[in-house]
Amino acid sequence: MADPGLEPATRIVVVGDLLADVVVVPDGPLRPGTDTAAAITSSGGGSAANTAAWLAWTGHSTSLVAAVGDDPLGRSVRDDLAVHGVEHLGPVLAEAATGTCVVLVDADGERTLLPDRAANDRLTAEHVGVLLDDAGLPLGGVAWVHLSGYTLLHAGSRGAGQEVVARARAAGVGLSVDAAGAGPLRDLGADAFLELVDGADLLLANADELVALGGEDAVAGRVRGLVTKRGGEGATWSDGHEQVEVLPRPARVVDTTGAGDAFAAGFLGSWVGGAAVADALASGAARAAEAVAHPGGRPPVAHH
Fold this sequence. Notes:
- The chain is α/β, with parallel strands linked by helices.
- The protein has a single domain (11-18, 45-100, 117-299), classed as 3-Layer(aba) Sandwich (UDP-N-acetylmuramoyl-L-alanine:D-glutamate ligase).
- Helix content is 36%, strand content 26%.
- The chain is built from eleven helices and 13 strands.
- It has helices at residues 47-57, 72-83, 125-135, 150-153, 155-171, 182-188, 190-196, 207-212, 216-219, 259-272, 277-292; strands at 11-16, 19-26, 38-45, 62-69, 87-93, 99-105, 111-116, 142-148, 174-178, 202-206, 226-229, 235-238, 243-246.
- The strands form two sheets. Strands 5-4-1-8-9-10-11-12-13 form a nine-stranded mixed β-sheet, with helices on both faces. A four-stranded mixed β-sheet has the order 3-2-6-7.
- The longest helix is centred in the middle third of the chain and has 17 residues, at 155-171.
- The protein is globular.
- The N and C termini lie close together (6 Å).
- Residues 10-300 form the Carbohydrate kinase PfkB domain.
- Belongs to the carbohydrate kinase PfkB family.
- It comes from Iamia majanohamensis.
- This is PfkB family carbohydrate kinase.
- GO terms for molecular function: kinase activity.
């Protein structure tokens, strides 16, 4: 359901990861070496794809650049994107399998990810260049580019992420980057990641990711704005001088998968439409509250 008063749809291109999620919610604590009953569901996943789906759900024309395999699973996740109103630009790779992520959800709704990135690690700078040209960047009315940090954090796709950053800068198009994951950030190193995103308009990170990056002082000066997603404690925006904070929306937590992606979509959708920082943060908090109330990382299709 589109936000009341939302400006007319503006085209946003999201670049990053597209996977199939297998969400596992055990009935109780895992019992190593034997059975633990569980509820298991499958759906489209991937941080970038989730953000694109939530952007489309809030009324924005949204395209996704993400690599999948030319296989039945790839066709399934692309069909799912279409149902959510997202245009998948490609690439579809004959030589790679579609990525899959097993999501373990504990009794508090916290999730642990076990990803096999597969085709996502085959996304290249050449793919990005061709697909962004086809999308009309910078001449086709693209107002904003959002990049999943996973693309930069993994060696196989890093060149593609760097191409996105370079093209957005050259075109003068707004660029946001999601820090994506505290573990991979620590593996790469904060300095290396911040060098890759230097000059971006926005960096979005949760509290753990911000710690992995060395804190606000380390980020200040590298990007124009920092949005920190603090879960049950709300969210903040800072440009290194001014700070704006919003409280979280009350929510019944079922599954936190994709909550940060939904927040990013809510924030960006409002921000690109010209909203004030506080209003954009509130929109992000509203989308996150909706996301945690049901399993999986995508918006409910029935409301699209």
